[in-house]
Design goal:
alpha/beta, 18 strands, 19% strand, seven-stranded antiparallel β-sheet
């Protein structure tokens, strides 16, 4: 028995992380001596319907397909899509067929999380927004969660090991457990211990709703840490929160009237895009959790659309290799790959693998993907109120 229920990287890379029927398919094709050259496409919807989603997970998908006898085209991470393929694979079917399960998993989960992250980003475009949802997912998923949140344009994340993997430093200050370890009425001792013990590079942001009224704890934290206090965070559970906007405004007022207007106010705890829109003018930053990390995966499918150079598709799917476009008015369009797209439209598909070799390693830069996400959201009116 293994220590943890985690399918390891070797099983994914070797194609063992697959559905059983792909093994039977491989056996049957080999028995029949058949291995046709095919074109397969990853799609969520066949035609545009106005419901955009954000593409993510490409880095892992390309790592899975690298070194195999395939050519791959895909839309870049951080682009919004609405119908048609996000990825096209061409090669002998047996070169990649059994990888379908893992491939779709990489793309589906990451794209769902990134889309939810973009919902929050556009809801509070001028606020700091951090991903705090790692605790809601299997630990093996955390790097994918935090990377997808960054692709969506979020400003940071909380998970330490995820940061180690993606080369970014995690953010965070203190939980309620710190104050509880000191005991009721000893919040000042907890804030002092944090200030005196934690590295100076960590912002001094005091959690101020463990035992008493938020305004009371905020003013006590300001008095305790003085000029060293960078900000306060409110994380009151929804069942006790009441009119949260009023509470936040009251906190800001009482800080201001006492000359502490430089202290930033952050909020967290079960927040979604609607909360961010309703609070963005009275707070400086947000921690979002389950709305992002628990997002529904995008329902991608992989379908063979050409066999031996001829159009082919199962019932209900569109045959023939396709391209997708961003039109001049910000819409999404789908057309056959061997024909011209709409006049003035930008083709979104780009080569990522040729003959098994990755075309451009820089294509998976997180910051560039985030810039694309923000630009695309503006271009298509994503999340417009």
């Amino acid at each position: 028995m293994t220590e943890f229920d985690i399918v390891d990287a070797a099983a994914i890379r070797d194609g063992r992380a697959t559905d059983a029927y792909f093994e039977q398919t491989e056996t049957a094709l080999e028995h029949a001596g058949r291995n046709p050259r095919v074109v397969a496409e990853v799609t969520a919807d066949q035609f545009p319907d106005g419901d955009f989603e954000l593409f993510a997970g490409l880095k892992d998908a390309v790592a899975l397909l690298e070194g195999r006898d395939v050519d791959v085209d895909a839309i870049p991470e951080g682009r919004l899509f609405d119908g048609g393929p996000v990825m096209r694979i061409e090669g002998p079917y047996l070169a990649f067929g059994r990888l379908e399960t893992s491939l779709l998993g990489f793309l589906s989960h990451a794209s769902g999380i990134a889309t939810a992250g973009l919902d929050c980003r556009v809801a509070a475009p001028d606020s700091q927004v951090l991903s705090f949802g790692a605790r809601h997912v299997h630990p093996s998923m955390t790097a994918a969660v935090e990377r997808s949140a960054l692709v969506a344009g979020l400003d940071g994340f909380s998970h330490v090991a995820a940061g180690d993997l993606i080369g970014r430093e995690a953010s965070g200050t203190m939980p309620h457990a710190l104050a509880i370890c000191f005991g009721r009425g000893e919040q000042e001792a907890a804030w002092r211990a944090f200030d005196e013990g934690v590295d100076e590079s960590v912002p001094r942001i005091a959690l101020c709703d463990t035992y008493s009224d938020e305004v009371d704890e905020v003013l006590r934290a300001a008095e305790t840490l003085g000029d060293r206090l960078d900000g306060v965070r409110l994380d009151t559970t929804g069942s006790r929160r009441g009119d949260f906007r009023h509470i936040v405004r009251e906190v800001g007022w009482e800080l201001d009237v006492r000359g502490h207007d430089e202290i930033d106010v952050y909020v967290s705890g079960g927040l979604g895009p609607g909360d961010l829109r309703g609070l963005r003018d009275v707070v400086d930053g947000f921690g979002v959790g389950g709305y992002v990390s628990n997002a529904d995966p995008v329902d991608f499918a992989l379908d063979v659309v050409e066999v031996g150079g001829e159009p082919a598709a199962k019932r209900g799917k569109l045959s023939g290799a396709k391209d997708v476009y961003r039109t001049a008015d910000g819409a999404h369009a789908v057309g056959l790959a061997d024909r011209s797209g709409p006049e003035g439209a930008e083709s979104l598909m780009e080569p990522v693998i040729r003959g098994g070799d990755v075309v451009d390693d820089d294509a998976f830069d997180i910051d560039a993907a985030a810039e694309r996400a923000i630009a695309d959201a503006e271009a298509v009116g994503y999340g417009a109120e």
